[in-house]
TrEMBL record:
InterPro entries referenced in this protein's UniProt entry, alphabetically: 3-OH-isobutyrate_DH-rel_CS, 6-PGluconate_DH-like_C_sf, 6DGDH_YqeC, 6PGD_dom2, 6PGDH_C, 6PGDH_NADP-bd, NAD(P)-bd_dom_sf, Pgluconate_DH
Ranges of residues in domain 6-phosphogluconate dehydrogenase C-terminal: 174-301
Name assigned to this protein: 6-phosphogluconate dehydrogenase (Decarboxylating)
Gene3D superfamilies: N-(1-d-carboxylethyl)-l-norvaline Dehydrogenase, domain 2, NAD(P)-binding Rossmann-like Domain
Pfam families: 6PGD (PF00393), NAD_binding_2 (PF03446)
Family from the record: Belongs to the 6-phosphogluconate dehydrogenase family.
Lineage: superkingdom: Bacteria
């Protein structure tokens, strides 16, 4: 059973959830466990409660609250646009995907034309959120946030409201905060990864996994990410079978672009992001050139590829 917050049972709501993938589906479980009535829609009929958006909206009582949890970009914008044509004044849309914060002001303005409210919500917690709760960063009008608090209380971890939830500011602030959160996450992950590589190759430590496990208690580098690193090593000792190819979902790039536009130095994020790019190159063209130049000016040996 997931931990819940004290007043959830007496403050239940009805909510429509659009997008029932790994995150959306788990969020529905947590909301229902807290006593909220959830009507879910997904393009996959196996997991959807209704056939289409029209049926979802028809199942909800006014004023309606609809949470959008679909892929960022065109899919989200198309969904918000559809909702704008189908919902009524006084209804509320909460956009909880990994959208770029610059999308939020146009979305809010579009819905405001017909009197529909809009909140953006950065959500962190991954596939584990159904059990332990989600970290929520919300942007938008304070009255709309207050209206939706029973939903946010159900989704965030149990405990004081300041733990796992913040009303970050106006429209766009929720996704802006989540963007920076993910930029920090890039740097933390890469620091752990570099430490793991040095321990593996240094030839001094014989129980590398044991070191990381020891660090999960009582040390200044302990964190949930470190707990997950230990879990990854338990599932795949020495990461056997794990390919180095690492994708990025956009937030790290957006954070770095924002840092450049504001002249804020973020060398740790830059290094972590560029390392992901390097992981996708079977043979780095830039490092080929470095090798060739070393051969030219210093006569250093060049390893020739077959």
């Amino acid at each position: 059973m997931s931990e819940t917050n004290p007043k959830q049972e007496e403050e239940t709501m009805q909510i429509g959830m659009i997008g029932l993938g790994r995150m959306g589906g788990n969020m529905v479980q947590r909301l229902r466990a807290a006593g909220h009535e959830v009507v879910g829609y997904d393009r996959d009929p196996e997991v959807s409660d209704v056939e289409d958006l029209a049926e979802l909206i028809g199942r909800l009582e006014a004023p309606r609250t609809v949470w959008v949890m679909v892929p960022a970009g065109e899919a989200t914008q198309a969904t918000v646009s559809e909702l704008g044509a189908m919902l009524e004044p006084g209804d509320l849309v909460i956009e909880g995907g990994n959208s770029r914060y610059t999308d939020d002001v146009p979305n809010a303005a579009l819905l405001a034309e017909t009197g529909i409210g809009y909140l953006d919500c950065g959500v962190s917690g991954g596939v584990w959120g159904a059990e332990g709760g989600y970290g929520l960063m919300v942007g938008g009008d304070a009255d709309l946030v207050a209206h939706a608090m029973p939903i946010f209380d159900a989704l965030r971890p149990a405990g004081p409201r300041g733990e796992g939830f913040t009303h970050a500011g106006g429209v766009g602030a929720g996704h802006y905060a989540k963007m920076v959160h993910n930029g920090i996450e890039y740097g933390l992950m890469h620091a752990y990864a570099e430490g793991w590589e040095l321990l593996q190759t240094g030839g001094v430590v014989t129980d590398v996994a044991g070191c990381f496990k020891a660090w999960t208690r009582g040390t200044v580098v302990r964190s949930w990410l470190l707990d997950l690193l230990v879990k990854a090593l338990e599932e795949a000792p020495d990461l056997a079978g794990v390919d180095e190819y690492t994708t990025d979902s956009g937030e790290g790039r957006w954070t770095l672009e924002e840092a450049v536009s504001k002249s804020v130095p973020m060398p740790v994020l830059a290094a972590a992001l560029f390392a992901r790019f390097a992981s996708r190159q079977p043979n780095s063209p830039s490092m080929q050139m470095v090798s060739a130049l070393r051969g030219q000016f210093g006569g250093h040996a060049i390893v020739r590829s077959e």
